[in-house]
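quick one before i forget lol
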Amino acid sequence: MSWRISKEGFDPSSIELDGSRFLIANGYMGYRGTLEEFGKNELVACTVAGVYDRYDDKWRELVNVPNGLFVKVNYNNTLLSPMTFQDCAHTYGLDLKDAYYFRNTKFFVDKEKWIKIKTKRFASSTDYHLLCLEYSITANFDCEIEIETGIDCDIWEINGPHFKGMSFQKLDGIYVTRLTTNEGKNFAVAETADHLDNFIDKEYLRLYARKSKVKLASDKEFKFYKYMCVTHSIEFENPFDEAIKRINEAKNLGFDYLFEKHRERWQERWSICDISIDGDEKAMLALRFSMYHLLSIAPYHSEKLSIPARGLSGQMYKGAIFWDTEIFMLPFFSYTLPDVARNIVMYRVHTLDGARRKAKEYGYGGAFYAWESQETGDDACSLFNVTDVITQRPIRTYFRDKQIHINGDVVYGFFTYYNATGDFSIFLEGAAEAVFECAKFYYSYAYYKPLKDRFEILDVTGPDEYHERVNNNAYTNRIAKFTFEKAIWLYDILKEKYPNILQEIDSKTCISQYIEKIKEAEQKIFLQKPNEEGIIEQFDGYLKLEDIEVEKLKDKMLHPYEYLGGGNGLATQTQVIKQADVVVLLNLFESEYEKAILKANWEYYNGRTEHGSTLSYSMYGLLAAKLGKLKDAYEYFLKTALIDLEGNYKQYVGNLYIGGTHPAANGGTWMAAVFGFGGIRVEGTKVEMDPHLPAHWKSLRFNLIIHGNLFEFEISNSKILIKSTRLKNSKNRSYRIVANKSEFIHEIGQLLEINLKGE
């Protein structure tokens, strides 16, 4: 059963995609899947989570640090690289199970002679500051090579340079670069090489290297190891000393020991997270690839970090956190790694003050979460996010100030985690305060219309970003109502059970003065209802716009990167939408709609959606699976799962580069498999199951952690098998399982078999 993603041959045009596709990461930093001899021009990057910097008036973004895994090998003064050697056999890729990058390149220096380079590298899952590399060289003849390795400080940056200060130091075989960002944060990047002797230190412009000549005996492998450590002043008072300490510890422990510990940690993760599909190797491998990328970038070590829209694959989208995290990624972590999920939701608690500052900036009450959130919660989103590729003029976009659904998305995330875990403590530790502040914001933003005795939400941008500044977006209004509902629910619980905590929260939020107003808004907020054909209008007036086919609209484009939204975009006066909008609403609030309504809206909006965002496919696939539209569901599932594997995504919006990995699509792939094909819906201690497997799938097996209990599900076309184990601190000993129009009581520790054939 394959766990490897690999490619053969070398294509320079795929360097950018491969760098993202074959990323290694550990939540602290990400290292792109590039060759060891590559540099800035090939987009080598080591991106550090949670450390942002701004240079001059450019966009603030995550920081990339110098490359301590740099290695070049020369033979007869020629670099051994697929870039310079056409006559070579080259294989490279990822081992998903043990989480490492591998490379195997054989260079034919003449008809009968070859030199082979084989490497293996990983981002340590036990010491998040470490990157480790094993580098071996073999030749089938006696020869001499020259190895050059060290720290490459010529950094690929999108909006840099980010280091105003940089100095180099050698210390007992260790190279260390000290760096200071424009905002005054200090870094240390330390590197050392093991089993590499008789070298000469060399300093070039922004490159610090050791050169060593090595004589290779025929068919005898030469191997050395490199260790790279990154530390910074946000977590350490003296990052230099900490880097030296950790790099010495790594060298003393050795590559094999460090890799074995890393491998064991990943086996623990896979023992919970893995999904098995009998009958579809391609889908299973794509699922594992998606989960690998989610597991690689998760904030294991801090609750002050979350997951950026492009993970840790670079500085794209400024390294900012969007609604993607709560709606598309959080379900995976909530039901497989709840401790990580808790860190993700607590990030929003720690950034609440930034959200308060934003609400105040725009003259509203409560808190208004950032559309593009960084470490403080202040909004990194600019007012001109896109450039018109035809006029080269910046386009005013209404993401920062009008995509107010972000508040409801954050609140929905809190309750996704709570529903999966039963962990109410997040609300006592700040999440309740955040919910109250989000509800206050919506109340202050909403408009009460006396003639109709209702609250409306005007002048917003919904998930479909092509239509800006619309009124009563269906998704936005419903997620606002959800926020009101949960604020009321929390207020009542805190008042009854935790009055002292409520009093403390009230001293900061004045929620007691708002709660009756919030109750009124919850009752009277306007929601878009299905029309006679069952269609829910995306926003007021949407159905009156020109109804044109997506491809016919795109035929009018004057440039392949032309932005279809904004004030003058081609889509703005049509019903063509960028991505799922009403369909997101239907997935999140599915139980509120009859199946006929779900079907009518899927069919209506499916034909009018451009899928200009990688977020879109998974939502359409998820709803299609629930509707039993298995051909469509499987097609969208594969499109989502293969986005990063096959590189089927937009790399530019206008002239803005938006490449990199797509963790929201990775999370959407998992949801499509588990919630869509698996048909799982969890509500308290009730687990509903309505599976719809693709015809060629013999079975689907996956695990979920629900309230501290491990559930193992095996679904085939004829039956469902459920086993469960109590893991920790679970108060729930039994669950109601609803499947095949019947209800069963499942006791933890027992086996339940449900027949799907007949009654």
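fyi The two ends are 36 Å apart (CA to CA).
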